[in-house]
Amino acid sequence: MARLAITGASGFVGRPMAAEAVRRHTEVRGIARSDEGGRRIADVGGRPAVVPRMEPGPLAEVFAGVDAVVHLAMIGRERGGETYEAVNVLGTRAVVEAARRARVPRVVLFSGLGVAHYGMTRRCTNSYFRSKLAAELELFRSDREAVVFRPSYVVGPGDGLVTGLLREMAEGRVARVGDGGYRLQPIAVADAAAAALAAALAPPPGRDAPPRVIDLVGPEAVSFQSFIDRTASAARAAGHPAEFRVEEVSVEDADRAAAAGGFRGLGPDELDCLLCDEVSDPGPLRHLLGRPLASLDEALARAVRGAPGPGPTR
């Protein structure tokens, strides 16, 4: 039986990944920071390990005997005393060192779509993307086999982007930054989880294999305005209120609001991710999975069905 360790296993991507791995008869050791997170891992059949702090010693004990580690435990916004340096960079360093001590051959890491353009475009040049780049380097500098995924927005039940739009639609007003022409390339959470699992459990590539970097993107790049429209269509089909007006907010006003405490709940780096206009080729991901990716409309339908709301009327 294959054995897999997942940091952040109780989270948005980690939990469905753990559930799918268990369905494939893989032993899952899910690392969480709290007992509640551990219970969420146990609910899908994983073996929870509560590790409050990402330190090499405790992690190495959990990693002992596994075939691969998938590292998902990172943050997209600094809050509550958590910093990118402490969580994204030093946390990754601890995971890589723990994998070395436990002789785990492979580490799979989730980074961010946009890292490759750090220093090239304004919206990809911030402390968040810098921390993701630094996390990648921690893995690349190690002697572990490295697989890095750079995700666009991951869409599914409970994701922040769709949930926020549904809330605004129910209130009758959706705030849109600028003309909404900037693009994103959302991927279904089930595909994101399946890709990480496929990379973690793939046969060894042979000696001296270079690191692999795969952009984790869906089959379709769309403008943000189109994303709003298609989310609204999915919402109406599921019985959610979706009669609203779009209120355009200038980029400058959105930046000021984000810096002052939040725009639509987004901090400055999260707003950068929305506006960065990063898209990529889904071909390598399709090749990894050996099948087509879920369409955007399928992903949105699942996300809306899993969101709180009235559901279909009868």
3D structure, described in words:
47% of the residues are buried. This protein has helices at residues 14-23, 35-43, 56-63, 84-101, 127-140, 160-171, 189-201, 224-237, 251-260, 268-275, 283-289, 296-305; strands spanning 3-7, 27-32, 47-50, 68-71, 106-110, 145-151, 154-155, 173-177, 183-184, 187-188, 212-216, 222-223, 245-249. The protein is an alpha/beta fold and 314 residues long. It is 42% helix and 17% strand. The N and C termini lie far apart (47 Å). The chain is built from twelve helices and 13 strands. The chain has a domain at 3-154 and 188-217 and 281-291: NAD(P)-binding Rossmann-like Domain (Rossmann fold, 3-Layer(aba) Sandwich). Helix 4 (84-101) links the parallel strand 4 and strand 5.
Helix-strand layout with pairing:
Elements: E1 3-7, H1 14-23, E2 27-32, H2 35-43, E3 47-50, H3 56-63, E4 68-71, H4 84-101, E5 106-110, H5 127-140, E6 145-151, E7 154-155, H6 160-171, E8 173-177, E9 183-184, E10 187-188, H7 189-201, E11 212-216, E12 222-223, H8 224-237, E13 245-249, H9 251-260, H10 268-275, H11 283-289, H12 296-305
Parallel strand pairs: 1-2, 1-4, 2-3, 4-5, 5-6, 6-11, 7-10, 8-13
Antiparallel strand pairs: 9-12
